[in-house]
Every structure is written in C-alpha cells, then in structure tokens.
Design brief:
223 residues; alpha/beta; five-stranded parallel sheet; 7 helices; globular
Length: 223
C-alpha cells in the first residue's frame, strides 16, 4: 500500500502539477486554505475540480478557513484598498501580492493534519524562480522548515516537506504537467479576477509566458 502524502493545492498551475507528481507515488490527501483573498471563490472551485479529477474522497480533503490574513492586511491579495500590480518581471523588490508569512501558516496546518492522519510527506508547489519576490519560495526556507518539523513534532512523526518544482522553470512545469496528464485546464492563477483571467498580473504573466515557451495553448479564459 502506498504511503500517504498531503498536497497543498491552491488551485493554481504549480499546485496542480505538484498534485500530479505526488499522485504518481503516494496516496494523496489534499489541503486547501481560504484566507479571504480576492479570488477565494474561484480558487476554491479550482481546488474542488482538481480533487474531483483525482477522485479524492472527502475524508482525504481538508479545507481550512482563516480570515486573519485579511485583518492583518499588507498584501494586495487580501487588502481590497490596494491595487494588484501588473507584472514587473525585471523588478527585484517584493511585490504587493506577497502575503506576509503565508506559506508558513499553510505548511503548519498541513503538518498538524499530517501528524494525525499519518502522512509521510507534505508536497507544496514552490518555485525558486519566484524567489526574488517571494522569500518563502526558496530552497533555504524549506530546508529550515523541515528542521523545524523535526524538532517540533512527536518523536514518532516522520513528515518532510517536498518541493518537486523548486528548481524548475515555469515552462518546464507546464511540460511536466502535460506529460502527467495534470488537469491544467481546471487550474486558476489570476490574482485579480474570478471569471476571466486578467492576463497582466504577475501570476498571469508567468503562466502565459510558460505556456508560450512550452508551445502549448492555455485553454482557460482570458480578457
């Protein structure tokens, strides 16, 4: 019998491909976190669609709802008074779409759940390419978090965070998703909209560029 792994699935392209990778070798459980972000409803739909695609039973699905990230603010994804920036690929500053310490909160939920259900791995679709803007998408961050798990869980717990996309380009991720029959058509990446993707935010820019470089048509609707 396959070991159990939890996959953090936002509903975006990277997490969709990560689920496909984990599904190759593990029995997977899927975690989604609603945090009062702009596109919460659309991301949740994408998550549900991906879970259905992989026929994940309800007992291996956890949807967590946290609203304090909106109350804290500081990000254009959670503070509606801030504008979501158009893509600025050459800038090295942290963009306004960065949500303070978000991945740590998500991983903490995953590890807590993993301890209870006996998971051996937690998969997250972090990409080092994003690291100039997102400090919690770097290899050093995940090495440090794994050290925290080792000292902060029961001695019998053996959970490790896996980042299979960390050194991949976005185009490589698209190609990998195609090869694994990942349901990329069900995923959603736009930071702004819930009906048609804007095509100009940082996430849309990276996604469109990736599909173009991979020579594959992205079939989600864009303005």
């Amino acid at each position: 019998m396959k070991e159990l792994a939890i996959v953090l699935v936002s509903g975006g392209m990277d997490s969709c491909v990560t689920a496909a990778i984990a599904n190759e070798h593990y029995q997977i459980a899927l975690l989604h976190v609603n945090y009062s972000q702009r596109t919460e409803s659309r991301e949740l739909k994408a998550f549900r669609d991906i879970a259905s695609y992989y026929k994940i039973p309800e007992e291996r699905i956890l949807i967590s709802n946290i609203d304090f990230l909106r109350k804290i603010g500081g990000s254009s994804l959670t503070d509606l008074s801030m504008c979501v920036q158009d893509a600025q690929p050459d800038k090295k500053e942290i963009p306004t779409s960065y949500v303070p310490f978000r991945n740590t909160l998500f991983l903490t939920i995953a590890v807590s759940w993993g301890e209870v259900i006996g998971a051996k791995k937690v998969f997250i679709g972090a990409v080092e390419q994003d690291s100039p803007g997102y400090p919690d998408c770097r290899t050093i961050y995940y090495d440090t978090f794994n050290a925290l798990i080792r000292v902060g869980t029961k001695p019998t717990t053996a959970i490790a965070v896996e980042t299979p996309l960390i050194n991949k380009t976005k185009a490589e991720i698209v190609k990998m998703g195609i090869s694994l029959n990942a349901p990329l058509h069900l995923s959603w990446s736009c930071y702004k909209n819930t009906d048609k993707a804007c095509g100009v935010c940082h996430s849309c820019f990276l996604r469109l560029k990736a599909f173009q470089e991979a020579g594959v048509k992205d079939t989600i609707p864009y303005f």
